Amino acid sequence: MASEPLLVVRGALRRFGDRTALAGADLTARKGEVLVLLGPNGAGKTTLLRALAGRVHLDEGQIRIGGGAPDDPGVRRRVGFVPQSIALWGRLPVRTNLEILGRLAGLARHDVAAAVADALAWSGLADRAGEPVETLSGGMQRRINIAAGTLHRPDLLLLDEPTVGLDPVARQSVHRVLEGLRDRGMGLILTTHDLVEAEALADRVAVLAGGVVRAADTIPILVGRLFGSDQEVLLMLASEPAPDLRDFLRTTLFSPTNEPRLWVGRLRGGLEQLPGLRGQLIDAGADIDELRVRQPGLHGVFVELTGTVPNA
Question: Looking at the chain, which residues constitute the CATH 3.30.70.1560 domain(s)?
Fold first, then answer.
């Protein structure tokens, strides 16, 4: 990861009317890494991804991909974009879809056949090339959707929720495709709401909230930075806490989440401190449904940085 960044974002600001989608986001990414964008709904993930693809223009700030702006034709040829929806013609064969999309991506006619053959090979769908897209499984369609975004062999591939709606087996097949692209030296930036997927794929994660990148690094570094030797405590109350109890929870290092009864905190000094913490909570009027301790991970990082519980 010591190479020069392929992508540099500085102070990205984008408003839609009176709503601020990006509020000064900073980000870097390199070739040969998978960077996963995480954040609650409305955090700015999709707007940032579309800005990187040149489909949304910033009001302020700067994006540079290989030193150029996203709307520069030369830069566009270095970037691939895979939308969340399947952007294929269902009744046309797989090969025909890729041939058309290869031409639309700017490939010369004599280069299309080789690019399509390569994409069919690494996606594992060469034997389905003559079949209409609509006859393929959801996982296969996702793999073809990804292949379509890479026909021009971009340095940077942007993917918006590339496995949404897939069952676990199909999701794993897409993961293998993405890992293979990274191993070829491509840089990948993707959004997901699935923290298990993020842990499986990410070389680094970037957590957004309120249109700002709150932190971006490897998961172990983020856990160490935010928690040190502390453990994570999950407190589920029987009912929504009264104002006095909410104030007490905040003073004892608990943070609220988007579920009013669920609070996430930290335990200093080891498990022997847990009975004392439980006693303090009861004395403060907490009606405890559940109090448990776990080692901090990406879930804890997400809650700590965003104040919300990740979507299921």
Answer: 231-295
In this structure, the number of other CB atoms found within 10 A of the CB of residue 79 comes to 23
- What pLDDT, on a 0 to 100 scale, did the predictor assign at position 64? 97
pLDDT at 4: 80
- Give the pTM: 0.88
Place of tokens 């971009």: 154
Cβ-proximal residues to 203 (8 Å cutoff; 6+ apart), any chain: 1, 33, 34, 35, 182, 218
Contacts of residue 267, defined as CB under 8 A and 6 or more positions apart, other chains included, come to 230, 231, 232, 233, 273, 274, 277, 293
Q: Which residues contact 58 (CB under 8 A, 6 or more apart)?
A: 12, 13, 14, 22, 51
Assess if CATH 3.40.50.11270 describes domain 231-295. no
Residue 190 neighbours by CB under 8 Å, 6+ apart = 34, 35, 36, 37, 158, 159, 160, 161, 162, 178, 201
**CA–CA dist 32, 54 (Å, integer):** 21
Return the DSSP state at 307.
S
State which residues of the chain have pLDDT below 50.
1, 312
**Which residue, 159, 71, 80, is CA-closest to 115?**
80
Token readout for 23 is 């509020």
Measured between alpha carbons, how far is 15 from 57 in angstroms, rounded to an integer?
10
Output the six-digit token pair for 43: 């955090």
Which region holds residue 105: left if phi is over 0, alpha if psi is between -120 and 50, else beta? alpha
For 112-129, how does the pLDDT look when each residue is reduced to its tens digit (9 = 90+)? 999 999 999 999 999 999
- Residue 11: both structure tokens together: 């102070």
The structural architecture, per CATH, of the domain 7-218 is: 3-Layer(aba) Sandwich (3.40)
Q: Is 220 exposed, middle or buried (0-12, 13-18, 19+ CB in 10 A)?
A: exposed
